[in-house]
Amino acid sequence: MMDWLRRAPGEEPAVCVGGREVPLAIRRHARARRLTMRLAPDGSEVRITMPRWGRTEDALVFARARLEWLERQIAAVPQAQTPRPGGVVHYRGVGLAIDWNAAHPRSPRLTGASLRIGGPAENLPRRLQRWLQGEAQRLLEDDLAFYCARAGHVPPALRLSRAHRRWGSCSDRRTIRVNWRLVQAPDFVRRSVVAHEVAHMTHFDHSPAFHALLAGLFEGEVHAADAWLKAHGRTLYASFG
After folding, report:
1. CA neighbours within 13 Å on the CB side: how many for 228?
2. Which residues in the chain belong to E strands, given as ranges?
3. How far is CA 18 from CA 21, 70, 77, 161, 191, in A?
4. Residue 10's pLDDT is what?
């Protein structure tokens, strides 16, 4: 059973699921035509998007009607798995064994199906994250240059995102932000997100023209990449929340 909690005036309501309080984030959007609900990839909050004219009470009623779905979604959030010596770190869709030894070089080095790394064990997760972010920057810059050339755009600045709400964003033609955690996913998934944002440099919407352009830019199947993120996207937050 879930109980709705009201916080102090001006703060957002929250839900109690399994004894844990989860914030309920209600967002009004100019283009929204109906109410939608989803759970943040890391399970940190429940997000409801609604039309601008919607009432907060409408969102609460909407969520109450979907309690069983919400409970299943929260139960499916992967448990945090801090990287450790002998464990696994995911890189480009492959699980690499963490070959740690204090005598190894501090900088990670790919050796076949393992990642060799030395240095202090206590800050291993932080150093692995920095390595993954560096790899993400390198790969995403190549992806961005590739799709901008196809679309006839000058590549904008690329910024790594740490967002828990979206995989990528393009608010203007000067900067594209992409979630660095995508470096853990298969290449076609990461590249589909970049192609999506490059398509937004031409069409700032999700119109038929946008989808037609995206289909022409991306060399793979967009629906397959979307399906992968829907099925596995939350796992990208398990090791590096």
Report:
1. 19
2. 3-5, 14-17, 20-29, 36-39, 46-51, 88-91, 94-100, 109-111, 114-117, 157-161, 168-169, 175-179
3. 8, 12, 13, 30, 37
4. 60
Of the candidates 163, 159, 129, the residue with the CA atom closest to the CA atom of residue 44? 163
Rounded CA separation 197/157 (Å): 12
Confidence of residue 29 (pLDDT cuts 50, 70, 90): confident
Backbone φ, ψ for residue 86 (5° rounding): 85, -5
Confidence at residue 188, expressed as pLDDT on a 0 to 100 scale: 98
Is residue 43 exposed (0-12), middle (13-18) or buried (19+ Cβ within 10 Å)? buried
Give the residue carrying structure tokens 């828990």: 164
Q: What is the pLDDT of residue 33?
A: 87
* Bridge partners of residue 17, in order along the sequence: 20
Q: Which two tokens stand for residue 180?
A: 């660095």
Q: What residue ranges define each of the domains in the chain, with the CATH number in brackets?
A: 3-75 (no CATH), 130-237 (3.30.2010.10)
**Residue 203 vs residues 89, 102, 159, 172, 226: alpha-carbon distances, Å:** 36, 51, 20, 11, 19
- With tokens 């240059």, the residue in question is 145
- Token reading at 198: 């490059």
Contacts of residue 211, defined as CB under 8 A and 6 or more positions apart, other chains included, come to none
Strands 157-161 and 175-179 turn out to be parallel
Q: Is the pTM of this model over 0.85?
A: no
CA distance 59 to 120: 48
- Distance from C-alpha of 113 to C-alpha of 156, rounded to nearest angstrom: 34
Residue 75 and residue 67: Cα distance in Å, rounded?
12
Q: Tokens 């031409």 identify what position?
A: 202
